[in-house]
Protein backbone atom coordinates (compact mmCIF):
# COMPACT_ATOMS: atom_id res chain seq x y z
CA UNK A 1 0.00 0.00 0.00
CA UNK A 2 1.34 3.45 -0.89
CA UNK A 3 1.89 6.27 1.60
CA UNK A 4 -0.83 8.33 -0.11
CA UNK A 5 -3.32 5.48 0.28
CA UNK A 6 -2.46 5.12 3.98
CA UNK A 7 -3.11 8.75 4.90
CA UNK A 8 -6.30 9.00 2.87
CA UNK A 9 -7.96 5.71 3.84
CA UNK A 10 -9.96 7.12 6.76
CA UNK A 11 -13.45 8.39 5.86
CA UNK A 12 -13.94 12.15 5.49
CA UNK A 13 -15.91 12.29 8.75
CA UNK A 14 -14.66 10.42 11.81
CA UNK A 15 -16.90 10.07 14.85
CA UNK A 16 -15.65 11.98 17.88
CA UNK A 17 -13.90 9.73 20.41
CA UNK A 18 -13.13 11.51 23.66
CA UNK A 19 -10.73 8.78 24.84
CA UNK A 20 -8.68 9.06 21.64
CA UNK A 21 -8.56 12.87 21.77
CA UNK A 22 -7.53 12.83 25.44
CA UNK A 23 -4.81 10.24 24.77
CA UNK A 24 -3.54 12.10 21.68
CA UNK A 25 -3.28 15.44 23.48
CA UNK A 26 -1.70 13.87 26.57
CA UNK A 27 1.00 12.26 24.42
CA UNK A 28 1.93 15.60 22.89
CA UNK A 29 1.85 17.36 26.24
CA UNK A 30 4.14 14.66 27.68
CA UNK A 31 6.64 15.15 24.84
CA UNK A 32 6.68 18.91 25.47
CA UNK A 33 7.20 18.37 29.21
CA UNK A 34 9.71 15.51 29.04
CA UNK A 35 12.02 17.34 26.63
CA UNK A 36 11.44 20.91 27.83
CA UNK A 37 10.32 21.99 24.38
CA UNK A 38 8.23 25.05 25.22
CA UNK A 39 7.91 27.80 27.80
CA UNK A 40 4.87 30.08 27.89
CA UNK A 41 7.14 32.99 28.81
CA UNK A 42 9.19 32.67 25.61
CA UNK A 43 8.48 34.11 22.16
CA UNK A 44 7.08 31.11 20.26
CA UNK A 45 6.62 30.92 16.49
CA UNK A 46 4.94 28.01 14.71
CA UNK A 47 5.81 27.14 11.11
CA UNK A 48 2.47 26.41 9.40
CA UNK A 49 1.48 25.35 5.92
CA UNK A 50 -2.25 24.70 6.00
CA UNK A 51 -1.60 20.96 6.00
CA UNK A 52 -2.77 18.47 8.60
CA UNK A 53 0.32 18.44 10.85
CA UNK A 54 0.86 22.17 11.35
CA UNK A 55 -2.88 22.89 11.56
CA UNK A 56 -3.37 20.25 14.26
CA UNK A 57 -0.30 21.51 16.09
CA UNK A 58 -1.41 25.15 15.98
CA UNK A 59 -4.86 24.19 17.28
CA UNK A 60 -3.45 22.10 20.12
CA UNK A 61 -0.85 24.66 21.24
CA UNK A 62 -3.56 27.33 21.26
CA UNK A 63 -5.79 25.01 23.29
CA UNK A 64 -2.93 24.45 25.76
CA UNK A 65 -2.57 28.20 26.22
CA UNK A 66 0.75 28.81 24.49
CA UNK A 67 0.98 32.42 23.17
CA UNK A 68 2.13 31.63 19.64
CA UNK A 69 2.52 33.47 16.36
CA UNK A 70 2.61 31.67 13.02
CA UNK A 71 4.69 31.96 9.87
CA UNK A 72 3.91 30.39 6.50
CA UNK A 73 5.72 30.25 3.16
CA UNK A 74 3.71 30.37 -0.05
CA UNK A 75 5.64 28.46 -2.72
CA UNK A 76 2.92 29.25 -5.29
CA UNK A 77 2.28 25.61 -6.22
CA UNK A 78 -0.96 26.29 -8.08
CA UNK A 79 -4.27 25.45 -6.38
CA UNK A 80 -2.49 23.33 -3.77
CA UNK A 81 -0.70 26.33 -2.23
CA UNK A 82 -3.67 28.67 -2.74
CA UNK A 83 -6.08 26.36 -0.90
CA UNK A 84 -3.62 25.74 1.93
CA UNK A 85 -2.93 29.45 2.33
CA UNK A 86 -6.63 30.31 2.39
CA UNK A 87 -7.27 27.60 4.99
CA UNK A 88 -4.46 28.64 7.35
CA UNK A 89 -5.31 32.35 7.05
CA UNK A 90 -8.90 31.65 8.04
CA UNK A 91 -7.88 29.34 10.87
CA UNK A 92 -5.35 31.81 12.34
CA UNK A 93 -8.01 34.51 12.22
CA UNK A 94 -10.45 32.24 14.04
CA UNK A 95 -7.87 31.47 16.74
CA UNK A 96 -6.72 35.10 16.90
CA UNK A 97 -3.15 34.03 16.07
CA UNK A 98 -1.00 36.50 14.14
CA UNK A 99 0.11 35.02 10.81
CA UNK A 100 3.18 36.18 8.89
CA UNK A 101 3.14 35.21 5.19
CA UNK A 102 6.23 34.99 2.97
CA UNK A 103 6.02 34.43 -0.79
CA UNK A 104 8.48 32.67 -3.12
CA UNK A 105 7.43 35.12 -5.83
CA UNK A 106 8.26 38.15 -3.68
CA UNK A 107 11.53 36.74 -2.35
CA UNK A 108 12.89 34.81 -5.34
CA UNK A 109 10.99 36.15 -8.34
CA UNK A 110 8.69 33.27 -9.13
CA UNK A 111 6.76 30.16 -8.11
CA UNK A 112 8.52 26.90 -7.26
CA UNK A 113 7.68 25.48 -10.69
CA UNK A 114 9.09 28.59 -12.40
CA UNK A 115 12.27 28.42 -10.33
CA UNK A 116 12.66 24.74 -11.17
CA UNK A 117 12.34 25.49 -14.89
CA UNK A 118 15.00 28.21 -14.67
CA UNK A 119 17.38 25.96 -12.76
CA UNK A 120 16.89 23.16 -15.27
CA UNK A 121 17.55 25.51 -18.21
CA UNK A 122 20.80 26.50 -16.53
CA UNK A 123 21.92 22.90 -16.03
CA UNK A 124 21.05 22.49 -12.34
CA UNK A 125 19.05 19.30 -11.78
CA UNK A 126 17.53 19.46 -8.30
CA UNK A 127 14.41 17.68 -7.11
CA UNK A 128 11.52 20.05 -6.46
CA UNK A 129 11.51 19.02 -2.79
CA UNK A 130 15.20 19.85 -2.46
CA UNK A 131 14.79 23.34 -3.92
CA UNK A 132 11.61 23.99 -1.96
CA UNK A 133 13.06 22.65 1.28
CA UNK A 134 16.26 24.71 1.10
CA UNK A 135 14.49 27.95 0.21
CA UNK A 136 11.60 27.42 2.62
CA UNK A 137 13.88 26.65 5.59
CA UNK A 138 15.92 29.77 4.84
CA UNK A 139 12.88 32.05 4.72
CA UNK A 140 11.38 30.61 7.90
CA UNK A 141 14.68 30.90 9.79
CA UNK A 142 15.22 34.50 8.73
CA UNK A 143 11.65 35.44 9.66
CA UNK A 144 11.79 33.67 13.01
CA UNK A 145 14.91 35.61 13.98
CA UNK A 146 13.38 38.87 12.76
CA UNK A 147 10.36 38.21 15.00
CA UNK A 148 12.62 37.59 17.99
CA UNK A 149 11.51 33.96 18.30
CA UNK A 150 13.11 31.92 21.05
CA UNK A 151 11.63 28.65 19.78
CA UNK A 152 10.59 27.74 16.23
CA UNK A 153 7.92 25.05 16.45
CA UNK A 154 7.73 22.50 13.63
CA UNK A 155 4.94 20.06 12.77
CA UNK A 156 7.22 17.12 11.95
CA UNK A 157 5.65 13.86 13.09
CA UNK A 158 7.07 10.47 14.01
CA UNK A 159 6.77 9.15 10.45
CA UNK A 160 8.77 12.12 9.13
CA UNK A 161 11.49 11.52 11.71
CA UNK A 162 11.73 7.77 11.04
CA UNK A 163 12.12 8.49 7.32
CA UNK A 164 14.84 11.09 7.94
CA UNK A 165 16.67 8.78 10.34
CA UNK A 166 16.57 5.87 7.89
CA UNK A 167 17.82 8.06 5.04
CA UNK A 168 20.78 9.29 7.07
CA UNK A 169 21.67 5.75 8.18
CA UNK A 170 21.36 4.36 4.64
CA UNK A 171 23.62 7.13 3.31
CA UNK A 172 26.16 6.59 6.10
CA UNK A 173 25.50 10.04 7.60
CA UNK A 174 25.57 8.90 11.22
CA UNK A 175 26.81 12.30 12.39
CA UNK A 176 23.69 13.97 10.94
CA UNK A 177 21.55 11.70 13.10
CA UNK A 178 23.00 13.49 16.11
CA UNK A 179 21.44 16.76 14.99
CA UNK A 180 17.97 15.25 14.97
CA UNK A 181 15.68 14.78 17.95
CA UNK A 182 12.76 16.57 19.65
CA UNK A 183 15.06 19.62 19.80
CA UNK A 184 17.32 19.85 16.75
CA UNK A 185 21.06 20.36 17.00
CA UNK A 186 23.75 18.62 19.03
CA UNK A 187 23.96 21.59 21.38
CA UNK A 188 22.53 25.07 21.65
CA UNK A 189 23.98 27.38 19.01
CA UNK A 190 23.05 31.03 19.42
CA UNK A 191 23.31 31.46 15.63
CA UNK A 192 20.08 29.48 15.22
CA UNK A 193 16.59 29.67 16.68
CA UNK A 194 16.09 26.22 18.29
CA UNK A 195 13.60 24.08 16.35
CA UNK A 196 11.30 21.91 18.45
CA UNK A 197 8.92 19.11 17.48
CA UNK A 198 5.97 18.42 19.82
CA UNK A 199 4.67 15.71 17.42
CA UNK A 200 7.98 13.84 17.56
CA UNK A 201 6.39 10.69 19.04
CA UNK A 202 3.01 11.11 17.34
CA UNK A 203 2.13 8.89 14.38
CA UNK A 204 0.90 10.51 11.19
CA UNK A 205 -2.18 8.29 11.07
CA UNK A 206 -3.19 9.58 14.50
CA UNK A 207 -2.80 13.19 13.35
CA UNK A 208 -5.05 12.46 10.35
CA UNK A 209 -7.62 10.90 12.68
CA UNK A 210 -7.41 13.85 15.10
CA UNK A 211 -7.86 16.40 12.30
CA UNK A 212 -10.87 14.59 10.88
CA UNK A 213 -12.39 13.94 14.29
CA UNK A 214 -12.24 17.64 15.20
CA UNK A 215 -13.09 18.75 11.65
CA UNK A 216 -10.05 21.04 11.49
CA UNK A 217 -9.65 23.00 8.22
CA UNK A 218 -6.55 21.15 7.03
CA UNK A 219 -5.65 19.71 3.66
CA UNK A 220 -4.89 15.99 3.90
CA UNK A 221 -2.96 15.36 0.72
CA UNK A 222 0.56 14.91 -0.60
CA UNK A 223 2.10 17.91 -2.36
CA UNK A 224 1.78 17.50 -6.15
CA UNK A 225 5.49 18.26 -6.52
CA UNK A 226 6.47 15.54 -4.04
CA UNK A 227 7.71 12.78 -6.30
CA UNK A 228 10.94 10.89 -6.79
CA UNK A 229 13.83 10.91 -4.39
CA UNK A 230 14.79 8.61 -1.57
CA UNK A 231 12.28 9.89 0.99
CA UNK A 232 9.29 9.04 -1.17
CA UNK A 233 10.54 5.54 -1.92
CA UNK A 234 11.00 5.04 1.82
CA UNK A 235 7.56 6.48 2.61
CA UNK A 236 5.83 3.87 0.48
CA UNK A 237 8.09 1.03 1.65
CA UNK A 238 7.56 1.88 5.32
CA UNK A 239 3.82 2.32 4.80
CA UNK A 240 3.59 -1.12 3.22
CA UNK A 241 5.71 -2.76 5.94
CA UNK A 242 3.61 -1.07 8.62
CA UNK A 243 0.46 -2.88 7.46
CA UNK A 244 1.57 -6.01 9.33
CA UNK A 245 3.93 -4.46 11.88
CA UNK A 246 2.02 -1.67 13.54
CA UNK A 247 4.51 -0.69 16.26
CA UNK A 248 7.79 -0.85 14.36
CA UNK A 249 8.13 2.95 14.08
CA UNK A 250 7.66 3.35 17.82
CA UNK A 251 10.37 0.71 18.31
CA UNK A 252 12.76 2.61 16.05
CA UNK A 253 12.14 5.87 17.92
CA UNK A 254 12.59 4.24 21.33
CA UNK A 255 15.95 2.85 20.19
CA UNK A 256 16.97 6.15 18.66
CA UNK A 257 16.34 8.36 21.68
CA UNK A 258 18.23 5.82 23.79
CA UNK A 259 21.37 6.00 21.63
CA UNK A 260 21.04 9.72 20.75
CA UNK A 261 23.31 10.95 23.59
CA UNK A 262 26.11 8.70 22.29
CA UNK A 263 25.59 9.80 18.68
CA UNK A 264 25.82 13.42 19.77
CA UNK A 265 29.30 12.73 21.17
CA UNK A 266 30.62 12.11 17.64
CA UNK A 267 32.84 15.11 16.78
CA UNK A 268 31.36 17.39 14.16
CA UNK A 269 33.35 18.37 11.09
CA UNK A 270 31.14 21.41 10.55
CA UNK A 271 32.17 24.82 11.77
CA UNK A 272 29.52 27.48 11.28
CA UNK A 273 30.35 30.95 10.12
CA UNK A 274 28.27 33.35 8.05
CA UNK A 275 27.28 33.23 4.38
CA UNK A 276 29.21 35.83 2.38
CA UNK A 277 26.05 36.76 0.46
CA UNK A 278 23.18 36.85 2.98
CA UNK A 279 25.06 36.85 6.30
CA UNK A 280 23.02 33.91 7.56
CA UNK A 281 24.75 31.06 9.48
CA UNK A 282 26.41 28.59 7.11
CA UNK A 283 29.03 25.85 7.20
CA UNK A 284 30.08 26.97 3.71
CA UNK A 285 31.34 30.28 2.39
CA UNK A 286 28.06 30.61 0.49
CA UNK A 287 24.93 28.96 1.91
CA UNK A 288 22.83 26.57 -0.18
CA UNK A 289 20.05 29.14 -0.60
CA UNK A 290 22.42 31.74 -2.02
CA UNK A 291 24.02 29.13 -4.27
CA UNK A 292 20.58 28.45 -5.78
CA UNK A 293 19.71 32.15 -5.99
CA UNK A 294 23.01 32.92 -7.75
CA UNK A 295 22.16 30.39 -10.45
CA UNK A 296 18.66 31.84 -10.83
CA UNK A 297 20.02 35.34 -11.31
CA UNK A 298 23.02 34.44 -13.50
CA UNK A 299 22.99 35.89 -16.97
Layout of secondary structure:
Blueprint: H1 3-8, H2 18-34, E1 44-47, H3 52-63, E2 68-74, H4 78-95, E3 99-103, H5 104-108, H6 112-121, H7 128-146, E4 151-153, H8 158-170, H9 174-177, E5 195-196, H10 204-213, H11 230-242, H12 248-263, E6 273-274, E7 281-282, H13 288-297
Parallel strand pairs: 1-2, 1-4, 2-3, 4-5
Antiparallel strand pairs: 6-7
CATH architecture: 3-Layer(aba) Sandwich
Looking at the structure, the CATH topology is: Rossmann fold
Order of helices and strands: HHEHEHEHHHEHHEHHHEEH
Helix content: 40-55%
CATH superfamily: HUPs
Overall domain count: 1
Strand residues, percent: 5-15%
Structural class: alpha/beta
* Radius of gyration computed on alpha carbons: 19 Å
Describe the protein.
- This protein has helices at residues 3-8, 18-34, 52-63, 78-95, 104-108, 112-121, 128-146, 158-170, 174-177, 204-213, 230-242, 248-263, 288-297, and strands at residues 44-47, 68-74, 99-103, 151-153, 195-196, 273-274, 281-282.
- It is an alpha/beta fold and 299 residues long.
- It has 13 helices and 7 strands.
- The chain has a 5-stranded parallel beta sheet with strand order 3-2-1-4-5, sandwiched between helices. A two-stranded antiparallel sheet has the order 6-7.
- The chain has a single domain (3-271), classed as Rossmann fold.
- It is globular and about 60 Å long.
